[in-house]
Amino acid sequence: MAVKMDPIHQFELKPLVSFGHIGHQHIAFTQSALYMFLAVGLIALLTIWATKSRAVVPGRAQSLAEIFYEFIGQTVHQSAGHGSERFVPLVFSLFMFVLLLNLFGMIPYAFAVTSHIIVTFMLALVVILTVVIYGFMAHGTHFLGLFVPPGVPGWLKPLIVVIEVVSFISRPISLSVRLFANMLAGHIALKIFAGFVPALLAAGVWGILSPLPLALSVAVTALEMLVAVLQAYVFATLTSIYLSDALHPGH
Amino acid sequence: MAQPHAPAPLKEGLIHEPASEHGGGFPPFESSTFVAQILWLALAFGLLYYLMSKIALPQIAGILHDRQSRLAGDLDQAAHAKAEADSARDTYERALKDAQAKAKGIAQTTREQLASEAETRRKSLEADLATKLAEAEEQIRTRTATAMSSVREVAADAATAIVERLTGQAPDRSAVEAAYDRAARPQTVH
């Protein structure tokens, strides 16, 4: 009875087309890349193909695309305020990308791209680089005022600046680790609970207990669905809040 | 999974590390896959951002804008139509009021005209009657006078005839008349 119980196995990258090695790096088109492009294709299908009729009274798919667009537009506007319209495409892309990749991970036997730290870190880096580059381009050195909150007494300033800088640098780390850890932990928990079912069934009389982990894995699946959507939303909201710093560094 | 699993005892099989080309490490921290993942991520996300910012979102924003302007236009049109209906109703009400006032005026003048006509007719009738009455009274007066004078003549004639029968001789006319006057006078003297 070779029941595969390794909860880590699901995160392995499987090369579909290998392009060989460059130094230590293995360059290959993996299932992860396939899911990324699948997500891009699906998002394009929803937002471009479904809206191409430009119906005044929208159908289901166009309605869905409009709801996503208005939702992200509102989130960005509420968090980043005036002048944030230029960042709606970025936040929309991030939200839809993360949402689709998270939800792909919930399909049995599919792969959760966002359970790899390098992917989430790169997405967080895009956000932080956008904040830094746009901040300096729009405000010049005034952008550095972000690290010196107004109304702080002089002797406290050096300490506050250090704290602000550390908090700013930790943003991409927390943003990426939050998403990565949520997806990783959720999928491991799901795999372990689901793995108990065949393990108990294989253990003779203990098979009576197997409905327990089955029920639990159903519950965890529901929870993970919620987490998948919620983490995409959290990612988009935090991105908007960070972008607000680039737009209004003086607060 | 390049290699098939070696048959393993059950207890070990449950926590079996699968043999793989990555060497069985923790895949998310397998740094040898990082460059490839970054490459595909950059391509996929770059494509997504391009599609969203250049095609999809302008299209959706255009749809929403069109819908909003169309709704606003429709609402304007509705408000315009309502104003028109209101003014039409005002015009109708004013016309109705005018017509009512005019009808009332016509009725009033007609009534007054009829009343004045009746009044003049009545007056002319009264005047007519008064003249007729006066004429009749005049006639009565002349007739009475005539009759009174005839009475004197008849009395004289009768007296003459009586005297002639009694005496056989006709009395003097003027003496008879004087006697009549004498006989008639005591009545008025009394």
Describe this structure in words.
The complex is a heterodimer of chains A (251) and B (190). Chain A has six helices and two strands. Chain A has helices at residues 31-49, 60-80, 88-105, 117-139, 157-202, 211-247; strands at residues 15-22, 25-30. Chain A has a two-stranded antiparallel sheet. In chain A, strand 1 and strand 2 (25-30) form a beta hairpin. Chain A is globular. The relative contact order of chain A is 0.14. The model of chain A has no long low-confidence stretch (mean pLDDT 90). Chain B is mostly helical and 190 residues long. In chain B, helix 2 (34-167) crosses helix 3 (173-189). At the A-B interface, strand 2, helix 1, helix 2, helix 3 and helix 4 of A face helix 1 and helix 2 of B. Chain B: Keywords: ATP synthesis, Cell membrane, CF(0), Coiled coil, Hydrogen ion transport, Ion transport, Membrane, Transmembrane, Transmembrane helix, Transport. Chain B: Residues 78-135 form a coiled coil.
